Amino acid sequence: IAGITQAPTSQILAAGRRMTLRCTQDMRHNAMYWYRQDLGLGLRLIHYSNTAGTTGKGEVPDGYSVSRANTDDFPLTLASAVPSQTSVYFCASSDGTGAQGYTFGSGTRLTVV
Amino acid sequence: GQNIDQPTEMTATEGAIVQINCTYQTSGFNGLFWYQQHAGEAPTFLSYNVLDGLEEKGRFSSFLSRSKGYSYLLLKELQMKDSASYLCAVFMIKAAGNKLTFGGGTRVLVKP
């Protein structure tokens, strides 16, 4: 593993199903983030975690939950998927100061039908 | 709320120069990032401006004016591989946690 790994790469999901998007980093970054990217709307923050054991809500948190049991992993769960959650999801991490920029995973393309 | 504006799309010719403008009105400001994102890929870091002025890095330069809430990314000697989206993002340090808020992105198409 080098950087941030997201899984799956893509998924087609039936509405109403539960889904967890996985994110793992090996840079020992304190802070991790989940963004969704939709055409014309740019990247919008869903949830974030400043350090293991803490999480916070971003700009568009409804319908999503996260956990941060350890430094490396930051899964995103859709409890009951809806078509409006069709998007590309990016996980990112930073050293906490942010000055070195955020490192992004390769993304998960999710389609809810 | 946060407002970060950049043009939706720009077209330029190979070898030319393109300037992508970004204006922002945010509740805080600790720096401005520019990211490049090729279609279907993750955003990658290009530049970070904290103080006013021009930062040059090879063919890419980024400018910041904090008093005007304005930044631009300058791409010189355009190459076909520069066809991508360019994302402007404002970084804010908050007690509840640091935030990076993005504009909608500018898609740049480089033509031969």
Report on the structure:
The complex is a heterodimer of chains A (113) and B (112). Chain A has 113 residues and is mainly beta. Helix content of chain A is 0%, strand content 48%. Chain A is globular, with a radius of gyration of 13 Å. In chain A, 36% of the residues are buried. The mean pLDDT of chain A is 93. With 112 residues, chain B is an all-beta fold. Chain B is built from no helices and 11 strands. In chain B, strands 2, 4, 5, 9, 10 and 11 form a 6-stranded mixed sheet that branches. In chain B, strands 1-3-8-7-6 form a 5-stranded antiparallel sheet, with no helix packed on it. Chain A binds chain B through residues 31, 33, 35, 40-45, 48, 50, 56, 58-59, 90, 94, 96-99, 101-107, and chain B through 8, 30-31, 33, 41-45, 48, 50, 87, 89, 91, 93, 96-105.
Please outline the helices and strands:
The complex is a heterodimer of chains A (113) and B (112).
Chain A: E1 4-7, E2 10-13, E3 19-25, E4 31-38, E5 42-49, E6 56-57, E7 64-66, E8 76-78, E9 87-94, E10 103-104, E11 108-112
Parallel strand pairs in A: 2-11
Antiparallel strand pairs in A: 1-3, 3-8, 4-5, 4-9, 5-6, 7-8, 9-10, 9-11
Chain B: E1 3-5, E2 9-13, E3 18-25, E4 31-37, E5 44-49, E6 53-57, E7 60-65, E8 70-75, E9 84-92, E10 99-102, E11 106-111
Parallel strand pairs in B: 2-11
Antiparallel strand pairs in B: 1-3, 3-8, 4-5, 4-9, 6-7, 7-8, 9-10, 9-11
